[in-house]
């Protein structure tokens, strides 16, 4: 066994004795690793300090032992050089891995040098023996290496110090000095060794405390994850059977499963309302658990607060009417919209309004809105029983109620206001309450209007202003009245059963389609719960769908391959293959990637919805399943798919039309070699003009620019290809090409707008053109653009009967006919574009403006 191994063995034994039975190999190895890393930094600092100290004490050599100053200086330089080597070497991997062994060498280097100097200056009687004490005492603070290593170093140093004295014992002349120096040196060694042992013990205990704390934190994190998983599973395991109860009862209640007598409807209504009440209580407890575990996250979207409050009030109108309460909304000035968490805001308003209705038997409930500086306030006031003053301070604490006795009149879990407080706090807001017993209570909520800035980590659903305007416009007039009627219908419940007011609907009959299996929309429904699978599939068939079912994701994946459904509706938590994996397989399949998919889950967390949408789900529904909502979402997805398919067909049609246009223009250019490239050049010039005028270069403009001369296909070659000037009769034939082109294109439905432009492209701005003598704005703007672009190209290209004009000459022609043949606005835009592109220089334009030709 090597010396280093023996040292490590003794060190391990020492550590176990220090820690007792609590020590374990993981803890000890972690402590050694930390000590080694600490030694690296300590060594670099010690090397610097030791080098400075050895150089500084060289002054003492010249005073006490001037005759030995040279030899002592050499010793000090060796130590300094050794420290430089340590300082540099400790950066490398091997020395770093053995940092504590290198620290022992640093001890021996510095203390050994002092021992050498001691023997040079008198041996046992030298005053330099004090330097050994100084090194050992200093290093115990700046380079701690543990008890065992310190003991080894001290033994080696003492042996090096005492060995020459023992060998030459008979030559000792001053025994008292020998005994005195050795006594103090041994005392120092004992003190240093004990201090190293105690210091190491303290460091080990400190590390053990941190180690246990880290382990405890890991266990807490594990427990937190297990708790989150537990609540997620509870959410699924409770909601799924509850869905199997509520969904069929809902279908009976709404009349989707057939007609009921009044007595039957009353019984079903009671079951339905209490099922929803139970679901709401479960939701509140799960929400509170997430708040308590700090797992609730913000999902911000643009909220019109005034509209939201109005809609929430409409939900409760029927309940307040039955209790003969007046409920009103007051807005103090304009209420701006803001980015808030809509779901949590609805929970805040719902719980506060429910509380007000519950504790108010007569009088009124008032919701007051106001915009404050940087915030929006909501006050919910009632004229109910009020809250005793001694309970105002604890009313927002969990499980606290105004009356918590066993004989209390008002039921509840005591979580409603606690959830309100948590939801407000999560949105960086505040809530307070004022109350007088017997006169009512006022709850005041203040929320920031810049939450998207205050909570940058929140998920933000961005919408631009135009989107919001369209949304607001689409939710006005009859649509808005229908929506409010739907929400009022949802509140048809007894005053004492307020938990489910948002979800209950009046029995409205659904018109069912009698589509044949071949023509019906084919839905694949994937659900592991047999009861729910049977119910939902039966209701979808009742609504006119053709339904195939699968019991888990693996079964669903196989059926997708064989059945080719139009849409897939899948649960998330299933054995063998869950909904996310099924979705991922569909999205990564080349021929299935576009298949519409709706995920349904019992998990209510926003994170799970976001996760599903990120995986590529087209839509996401939470249990319990509302068949009508599922029906609407399936239809919306299929309509969207049809729109996308139509859009794709339209794009293909546009591409084919453009290919047809290019074919027409090339056919014309093949007839007339002198106009080769003319259509494409006119397209380029016309696009430049349109861009300069701020117009969009749409398909109609592009086709008109390309096909403006298509009518020349009907002009005889003897006229079209004539190299000399045309006579009067020939010119009359040539002038008919605009009408010929328009007539040719009218045969194609896609070219109707283009044909009108081509018919007018030879009209003049002053009305002197042909064929109809249109003027000014009577001429389509596209035709006015073609007129300038076509003329510019004709003037700047060679023709059989003339040479091309220069750029300035062509500009002069445009300016001379500006306001007569050409639209001044179009000419100015074209010249501006040519100047900006460097085709024409501004100085040349100024010179041209001075000529008589330009003025005329």
Explain what this protein looks like in three dimensions:
By secondary structure, the chain is an alpha/beta fold. The chain folds into 4 domains: 3-220, no CATH class; 264-500, Histidine kinase-like ATPase, C-terminal domain (Heat Shock Protein 90, 2-Layer Sandwich); 522-644, Rossmann fold (3-Layer(aba) Sandwich); 672-855, Hypothetical protein af1432 (Orthogonal Bundle). Helix content is 60%, strand content 9%. The protein has 32 helices and 13 strands. The strands form 3 sheets. Strands 2-4-5-7-6 form a 5-stranded mixed β-sheet, covered by helices on one side. Helix 9 packs parallel to helix 17 (530-542) and helix 26 runs antiparallel to helix 27. The longest helix has 80 residues, at 175-254. Mean pLDDT is 77; it is low at 404-409 and 463-516.
Please give a handful of descriptors for the protein shown.
five-stranded parallel beta sheet, extended, 13 strands, Rossmann fold, alpha/beta, 856 residues, Heat Shock Protein 90, 4 domains, five-stranded mixed beta sheet
CATH class of the largest domain: Alpha Beta
- As residue ranges, the low-confidence spans are 404-409, 463-516
Please tell me the total number of domains: 4
* Number of continuous helical runs: 32
Please tell me what the overall shape is: extended
What is the share of helical residues? Answer: 55-70%
Average of per-residue pLDDT values: 77
Query: Could you give me the name of the CATH homologous superfamily of the largest domain?
Result: Histidine kinase-like ATPase, C-terminal domain
